[in-house]
Amino acid sequence: MNTDKPEQAADQGATERGRGDPTAAETLEGTLMLVGDTIAQAASRVHEFHRAIADIPFKAVGTATISASKPVEMVHNEITDLVYGAVRETGKGLFSGAAWVVRQANQSLSSPQIIDEALGGELMEQVARVPVPGIPGDTTGKRVAAISSAINGVFGDHLAATRNPMEVKMGLYAHGQLVGTTQEELMQQFPQATRHLVVFVHGLCCNEDSWNLYMDPARPETRPYAVRLEEDFALTALHLRYNTGRTIEANARQFKRLLNKLVRNWPVAVDGVTLVGHSMGGLVSRALVEMIDHDDLILRRAIRDVVCLGSPHDGAPLARLAAAGEQLFNRFELSKPLGRVLGVRSRGIRDLKDGLGPLKTHDGHDVMFHLIGSSIGDSTGSWLPNTVGDGLVTVKSALADDTGRAQRLAFSHKHHMNLLNDPEVYLELQMVMRQHLRQRVE
C-alpha cells in the first residue's frame, strides 16, 4: 500500500475541512472542476492516440525517403499539438472558471442557503432524473450522496488531492444523521447510549445506504443488519462513510483516529466494539486493527471482532485484470493511450489488486476475525468458488489463508451484493454478538 506524502496531505486536509454532505453550491463547484479535469484528460488521450497513429506512416515514409519527410512530420506535430492543447486548456479553463465563479459567489453571500435555493431548482431537478437503483426512501439528497460515492470510488484520490468539494468526507452516521465527535454532541445525540458499538463499513463506490439494498418492507427478515441488531441486543449501531478512492491504508489511518475519538468521548464507558465491513470495507477495518500499536490502548481493549463480508484479502480478479490490461496496452505505442485510460482508476481500486494478504495481527491483539465469503453457484462445485466466487471476489480470497485468529464461513448461491443484506448472514452476525452480549427477550 502507498504511504506517500500527497496521500497524507489529503488525509489531513479531509480532517481540516470538516465533514458532512456538500451544499448544492459545493456540489456544482466540484462537478464543474471534475468535468474540466475530465475534458483535459480526454483531450490528452485523443491527442496521444492521434500521434500514435500518425507516427506509423511517418516512420515508414521516413525510412523509405531517408528522413526527407521529417519537415512535414514536424509541421504536422506542431499543428496537432497546438490544436489539442487549445482544446484541452480551453475546456479545462472554461469549467474551472465556472467553478471559481460559483465558489466566489458562495463565499460572498451572507448565507450559503441563498445559493442553495438559487441553484436548487435546476440542479436538483437534473439530479432527480438520474437513475440510481436500490435506494430505499429515495430522495434527492440520497441520490446526490449515492452518485458522489460512486464518483469518489473511481476518482476519489484525485478529488482529495485537488480539494474538490465533491470529495466524500469521512464521518460516522446513525439513522441517517452525521454523528458528532465531542462529548457534548454525543450525549445529546445518544441519550440512551450503550456500552457496545457496532460500526458498519461499506465497500467501493458505496455509502451507508448500501446496507439497505435488498430491504423489502413485506419481509421483516430483510430489515438492515443495524436495525435488527439494535432490536436484538443492547448495542448502538453506526455507519462509516468514506472516500473509497483513497488508499486502504489512508482510510484505515483516518478511521482509527475517528474511532479513537468517538470511544474516548462516548457518553458511557465502552466495553466492546465490533467492526463489520463489506468488500473494501472489510479490508479497511482489518487494516485499522493491524495498525493498532501500544499507544492505542483504548482501541486495543475495545475492539473485539472484525467481520469481513466478501472482502478480497488476496485481491480481486477484476482489479488484477485492469492492472494487466494497463500493463499490456502500455507496451505498444498505438495502444498506450488506452493503457493510460485504464490507469485513471483510483488508488483505492489499485489496492484491490493484491488485497492485504495473510492476517497480520500483532501479539496481544485480542481480536477475532470472522471471514465470510460466498459463491454464486453450488458449493459442491470446485471451479465456481475458486474462479468466479461471488462474481467479484473468489471464496479463497474472501477467506484469506489459514493464518491468524479467525473463523471462516462460505455461503453458496449468493452474489457479492447479497452479503450486504441477507437473513443467513444476519444469523452469523447474531452468533458473533452472542459471544459478548445477552440477547434481548421480547
Which helices and strands occur, and which strands form pairs?
Elements: H1 5-16, H2 24-64, H3 70-108, H4 112-129, H5 140-161, E1 171-174, E2 177-178, H6 183-189, E3 196-201, H7 225-232, E4 236-241, H8 248-265, E5 272-278, H9 280-290, H10 297-302, E6 303-309, H11 317-329, H12 336-342, H13 347-351, E7 368-375, H14 383-387, H15 395-398, E8 406-412, H16 423-434
Parallel strand pairs: 3-4, 3-5, 5-6, 6-7, 7-8
Antiparallel strand pairs: 1-2, 1-4
Organism: Limnobacter humi
Pfam families: PGAP1
Region (Disordered): 1-23
Question: What structural category characterises the helix and strand content?
Answer: alpha/beta
Number of helices: 16
Relative helix content = 40-55%
Architecture per CATH nomenclature, i.e. the level-2 architecture of the largest domain? 3-Layer(aba) Sandwich
The name of the CATH superfamily of the largest domain reads: Alpha/Beta hydrolase fold, catalytic domain
Strand content: 5-15%
Stretches with pLDDT under 50, minimum 5 residues: 1-6, 13-18, 61-66, 108-124
* Number of beta strands: 8
Question: What's the order of the H and E elements?
Answer: HHHHHEEHEHEHEHHEHHHEHHEH
Taking the sheet with the most strands, its summary is:
8 strands, mixed
Strand order of the largest sheet: 2-1-4-3-5-6-7-8
Distance between the termini: 47 Å
Pfam family, one: PGAP1
Region (Disordered): 1-23
Biased composition (Basic and acidic residues): 1-20
Protein name: GPI inositol-deacylase
